[in-house]
Amino acid sequence: MQNIKENIQRLVTDNISEIIDLRRYLHANPELSFKEINTSKFVCNYLSNLGIDYKKNIAGTGIVAILTGKDSEGDIIALRADMDALPIKEDTGLEFKSVNEGVMHACGHDAHTASLLGVAKILNAMRDNWNGIVYLIFQPGEELLPGGAKLMIDEGIFDKGEPSLIIGQHVLPEMETGKVGFCSGRYMASCDEIYITVSGGGGHGAMPHRTIDTVLISSHIVVALQQIVSRRADTRIPTVLSIGRIEGLGATNIIPSEVNMQGTFRTMDEEWRSDAHEHIVKMCESISSSMGATCNVEIKKGYPALINSKKYTNILSELSKDFLGEDSVLTMDKRMTAEDFAYFSQKYPSVFYRFGVGSESVGMNNKLHSPNFILDERSLEVSVSNMAWLTIKLLSDNKKI
Known about the structure:
The protein is an alpha/beta fold. The chain is about 35% helix and about 25% strand. The protein has two domains: about 1-190 and about 305-395, 3-Layer(aba) Sandwich (Aminopeptidase), CATH 3.40.630.10; about 190-300, Alpha-Beta Plaits (2-Layer Sandwich). The chain has helices at about 1-30, 35-50, 110-125, 150-155, 215-230, 270-290, 310-325, 340-345, 380-395; strands at about 55-60, 60-70, 75-80, 135-140, 165-175, 180, 185-190, 190-200, 205, 240-245, 255, 260-265, 295-300, 305-310, 330, 350-360. It has an eight-stranded mixed β-sheet with strand order 1-2-4-3-5-16-6-15. A four-stranded antiparallel β-sheet has the order 10-12-8-13, covered by helices on one side. The longest helix has 27 residues, at about 1-30. It starts with a helix and ends in a 7-residue tail after the last helix.
């Protein structure tokens, strides 16, 4: 295995300038969710130049490339990268900043895509060192419901057989460049959007007895909803319910006839998630009814919880230690953010891990989804080499993983 490790490191060193150029092109030319037309063409052209077969136009702009090792009878692994950008005006001052006004790769998807293209080149060059099949998933629309992962799964993307494992990776700005992090089991939350409309007879603020005070009723609802988290949720299940927007277009002396609220509900258990939705609706409706108003509640179901395979998380973590060193592999906490990679994790054994992109040169407090987000491009050496190492190591034997 030492020769394999050295060969991967050599190939990455020889190609890192190209991989950085790929990332910079993608960063300068971001496209919104499900509109990744030129990004998809760029990926296809690169794969074609490597002589790698692929299927395109999956879920619109998605691509699945297929690589076969020296023995196609080996196991099957899928590797996934997302391609879409965010509706954010970039303010980084980078020479290769976005040329598409109001669109920015502020979540590292440019690095994810460039990394997977780099992995494709390494795996292609080292076919004699591994067996089986590797799917390379270039996914659209991670940032927008219903999520490109779900749509790709629904269309059917695994023509050569179902994978035994799907691996994804994501940038983490608060983690130092050169390190990776794993979390076994429950890792990221489901995410649902809550829309509440409280309706009643508004009126003069000086005569509240002649109105149905939608603002007061909405205030009761906001406070009462927290009881779902503190008194209904199993304390062992992470749960968040936040109301982020309240709009009642009244005035200093006007009680509005309608108040609209928006929020998010997140958890890590699908059964509790379903029960909680019922509690939210009942609570909003009962409070409104008891105070003379009507209430409409709409809950848009978003991504499910992301559950990492405990077996494979342990395996990949140990393999990463073999490649990067013990001190470069961290154990991470759960996060209440969401990722549509969760759809893969609900259907197949999966591992979604992080690679650090922070450093003194770019800072350790860069925030994802920020117009100022910058990553340390040296991180691409790790994102490419470690993922290639994990894949080859897992597929280097004829035994099933």
